[in-house]
């Protein structure tokens, strides 16, 4: 097949799913080579889409069992999806070398009991569950993970890639025009997360 082109994968997670963008090129001039939606939800688990919300209605013992079940199912589904994604990219001549995952606030969660007592932490914990599943699957595949808070994303790109904010925004707009929809905030920020992963991998 010849020399394979290195790519990084960027993820923006939601409750039960994540947007994925695979990026080649350089952090300052990325090219999107693939986009997908990664399903992280086992629909056979009642309350699985928002497990901490469901757990908040249970006693602590049953809440812990539900969260553990959802963690394991999300990791399993993330692993299956990433293995398939990596195989498909390799079949097209691309070599995944790293992953970038967007974070929320990065606020420490504490114990399950303290999380379930705080509505704000419940929302944070649900995001972390699905982000952690993606990170776990990436590491299982030997792909180094770069994590960045979404509010720091643009500043990180400017600093690491040595380009201006205007350049980043202009290039994202050009990418969207070339590849067409979907090109929402999900895809744009996942692209930048992948760019940071490329930079961290030395590409």
Overview of this structure, please?
The chain has 203 residues and is α/β, with parallel strands linked by helices. The protein has one domain: Nucleotidyltransferase, domain 5 (2-Layer Sandwich), CATH 3.30.420. Helix content is 51%, strand content 22%. It has helices at residues 51-55, 60-91, 112-116, 119-140, 153-161, 165-179, 185-200; strands spanning 5-14, 17-25, 30-39, 94-103, 145-149. α2 (60-91) crosses α4 and α5 (153-161) runs parallel beside α7 (185-200). The chain is globular, with a radius of gyration of 17 Å. 37% of the residues are buried. The mean pLDDT is 94.
- The name of the CATH superfamily reads Ribonuclease H-like superfamily/Ribonuclease H
The biggest beta sheet is recorded as: 5 strands, mixed
Strand order in space, largest sheet: 3-2-1-4-5
Separate helix tally:
7
Using only C-alpha atoms, the radius of gyration works out to 17 Å
Helix content: 40-55%
Instruction: Supply the helix-strand structural class.
Output: alpha/beta
Describe the structure using short key phrases.
203 residues; Nucleotidyltransferase, domain 5; 5 strands
């Amino acid at each position: 097949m010849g020399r394979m082109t290195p790519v990084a994968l960027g993820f923006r997670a939601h409750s039960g799913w994540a947007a994925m963008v695979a990026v080649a090129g350089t952090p300052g001039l990325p090219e999107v080579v693939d986009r997908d939606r990664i399903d992280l939800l086992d629909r056979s688990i009642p309350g699985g889409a928002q497990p901490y919300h469901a757990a908040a209605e249970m006693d602590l013992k049953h809440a812990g069992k539900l969260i553990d079940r959802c963690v394991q199912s999300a990791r399993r589904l993330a692993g299956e999806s990433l293995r398939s994604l990596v195989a498909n990219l390799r079949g097209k001549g691309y070599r995944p070398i790293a992953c970038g995952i967007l974070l929320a606030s990065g606020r420490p969660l504490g114990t399950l009991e303290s999380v379930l007592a705080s509505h704000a932490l419940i929302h944070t914990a649900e995001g972390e569950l699905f982000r952690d599943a993606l990170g776990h699957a990436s590491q299982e595949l030997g792909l180094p993970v770069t994590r960045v808070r979404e509010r720091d994303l643009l500043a990180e790109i400017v600093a690491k890639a040595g380009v201006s904010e205007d350049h980043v925004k202009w290039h994202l707009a050009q990418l969207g025009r070339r590849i067409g929809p979907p090109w929402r905030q999900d895809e744009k920020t996942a692209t930048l997360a992948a760019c940071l992963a490329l930079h961290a991998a030395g590409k």
